[in-house]
Write a structure and sequence with these properties.
By secondary structure, this protein is α/β, with parallel strands linked by helices. The chain has a domain of 222 residues: Rossmann fold (3-Layer(aba) Sandwich). It has twelve helices and 13 strands. Strands 3-2-1-4-5-6-11 form a seven-stranded parallel beta sheet, with helices on both faces. A two-stranded parallel ribbon has the order 7-10. It has a two-stranded parallel ribbon with strand order 8-13.
Length: 325
């Protein structure tokens, strides 16, 4: 069994990865600064689901603080692997405040890489994003596609993190897996993501804001599938960039219709102009994940969204008040 450091452990994807590794018998040190980028109640709910695991220890830590990262290594290291999932996420807000994205996504990655390098860290897994593919690449996206034209500061900051990972692999031989996630969703998901918003807005009878005409599509990928792929990428691979997506893009309009059927209410859709940082479609080529990780997503969107609706209804007493923009 391995001893892992997981950054962003109270986050949506990281909490699912943490739970999976704990079930498999590994030990985990989870770090998170529990910032208010979105409603902290969601992060607290996720941590509550993990607290019964005796092989988990949690530390409040801001990865952009180099001294704080060093202290985690001193107290809780050494680690067999670092799974770096902490990030400032979200395309649109990054346009308003690009500085915090660079500090966290690039600076935080550098702090973790350097702390690991100085202690002979063998394995580093980076959560990256399909946003790197921009709007100029052919669909479905291949890992070798050009990622030199990011459309948002968020994507640019993740490009910087990927570049730093390659540098540390090249200079120090660190084994690095970079995982490009595609529109991850699931229960207790991020409230700035479309499925959480749509479920809340439709259930509560609020206007449903759609940027664009609804024909834009996303490669919605269920969080438990992403957690499995992330755990599989912890093995030695050298240096690899791997897509984790559903390979089944669905339009925003069809997603809203699915939620309407599950909730039993009609959406009051209000259309707004598409944002310049958004892309019309995402779609992952996942042949490499199948080949290298023996990974295939298994959750159909109908099943995954039904779980999201069920979670929301069970937690509606407070989830209805979560700010979704």
């Amino acid at each position: 069994m391995a001893h892992y450091l997981i950054s962003g452990a109270a986050g949506f994807i990281a909490s699912a990865v943490t739970a999976l590794l704990l079930r498999e018998g590994h030990t985990v040190v989870g770090v998170d600064n529990l910032n208010n980028a979105y409603d902290v109640r969601l992060k607290q709910w996720r941590l509550e689901q993990l607290k019964s695991h005796q092989r988990l220890s949690f530390e409040r830590c801001d990865i952009s603080d180099r001294a704080a990262v060093e202290d985690v290594w001193i107290r809780s290291g050494p680690f067999d692997g670092v799974i770096h999932l902490a990030a400032r996420a979200g395309v649109r807000y990054s346009v308003e405040n690009p500085w915090v994205y660079l500090e966290t996504n690039a600076g935080g990655t550098l702090n973790l890489l350097e702390s690991g390098r100085r202690r002979g860290l063998r394995k580093f897994v980076l959560a990256s994003t399909s946003s790197l593919y921009g709007a100029h690449n052919e669909l479905p996206y291949l890992e070798l596609a050009d990622t030199s034209r990011p459309l948002s500061p968020y994507a640019a900051s993740k490009k910087a993190a990927e570049a730093l990972c390659h540098t540390y692999h090249h200079l120090y031989g660190m084994d690095v897996s970079i995982l490009r996630y595609f529109t991850v969703y699931g229960p207790a998901g991020r409230p700035d993501m479309s499925i959480f918003r749509f479920v809340q807005w439709i259930e509560e009878g609020r206007p449903v804001t759609v940027y664009g005409d609804g024909t834009q599509s996303r490669d919605f990928t269920y969080v438990e599938d992403v957690a499995r792929g992330t755990a599989a990428a912890c093995k030695p691979l050298g240096y690899e960039v791997i897509n984790l997506g559903s390979d089944r893009p669905v339009s925003v309009a069809d997603t809203i219709a699915l939620i309407e059927n599950l909730v039993g209410k009609r959406a009051d859709i209000q259309y707004e102009a598409a944002h310049r940082a958004d892309v019309p479609a995402t779609w992952a080529n996942i042949a490499k994940a199948r080949r290298m990780l023996d990974w295939t997503p298994t959750t159909r969107q109908e099943e995954g969204v039904e779980r999201c609706v069920k979670w929301y209804l069970e937690n509606r007493s407070w989830a209805a008040g979560v700010k979704t923009g």
